[in-house]
Please model this.
Amino acid sequence: MMADGAAPPARPPYSRLFSSAPEAIVQDGKFQYGCYDGPARRANMLDVERPYHYPVPRWVKALRCKEWRAFQAGNKRWFFFTALYEAKTFSAAMFYLWDRQERQIYQIKRLLPAVNFGIGECLDGERIGYQNRHSAISYKTDLSGGLISVEASRSRHHGLTPFKLSFQFSYNTRQAAPSTVCLPLGLNRAMYSTKVLMPMRGWLELGEERFEFDGGDAMGIMDDHKGLYDYRMRYDWVTGFGLDAKRRRVGFNLTNNQVKDQSQYNENVLWINSRVFPLPPVTMTRPQGPDGVWHIQDTEGLVDLSFKPEFLNPLQVNAIVIASNYHGPFGSFDGLLRTPDGAEKIDVRKLYGMGEQKYLRA
Model:
């Protein structure tokens, strides 16, 4: 019992260790749960034994494993979101260019049958993409060479404005700090993800105009993801980036998903230049629905944000065995983020990004 007038003991700062990544994310048939300072050389999800507590053929595990690679990028004027998504029962190829100044969207969006974009076990050295008669999207991840590339194009057809772009992200220890996680979903299943904030250079040709991206405000986040999810998949997510008041490159990733024991296992982080800080579990509320203001908070006093959508990006599918209720707006933030030790307090009003409220039955 504390003496009268004695202050309660200070609560230790939130912590979550980042250890060195294993060679393979599945070893001896079991997932290697943890938070790591970089990607495993092999994300061999299908080598897990007895997912759902039963032995199943490899093709069943492949069918259940959702995989995607995505990028959120841009500068003070432009915001870009692109993803190549393999749900196995269907696929999606997306590229959005959002002109924040003119409030104009340019996009490639294709929902496809079960197309394989080329996502494999090894992130380093991989090139994946999608192409049809009028558009193309491609990603190349040369991690050992310190460069990640994104290219996309859309031709002039049906009155649409053509565009072409090429971006290069710098992936090195001086400028970037990856955060990789392998997190339990229950029944010997897991999600695996690598996210990293990086500086960016490149160009965009839009109609007759050309825009260069070579300033300190040009940056982006890569999201490489795999998961043996439930038949019904749900999550809430927000991410943002930009230069803070000190002209530092700042970004964050915040997710509330189906992971078990999120106090120990989560993918929430804050980046400041080439440093990465763990953040606690969060909750997200939307009193006016996904088109209104979102509120994102934790219980440790490190996360207190609001997200205001500007461009709404809904996608709804309702088929016999497949259903999707997806909201992925782009928008601005307000509020504060703090590092676990309290040494840094980030005003997020200069940051921009997107959120997702997702339900998928597939």
Remarks:
- The mean pLDDT is 92.
- The chain has one domain: 26-361.
- Residues 58-64 form the longest helix (7 residues).
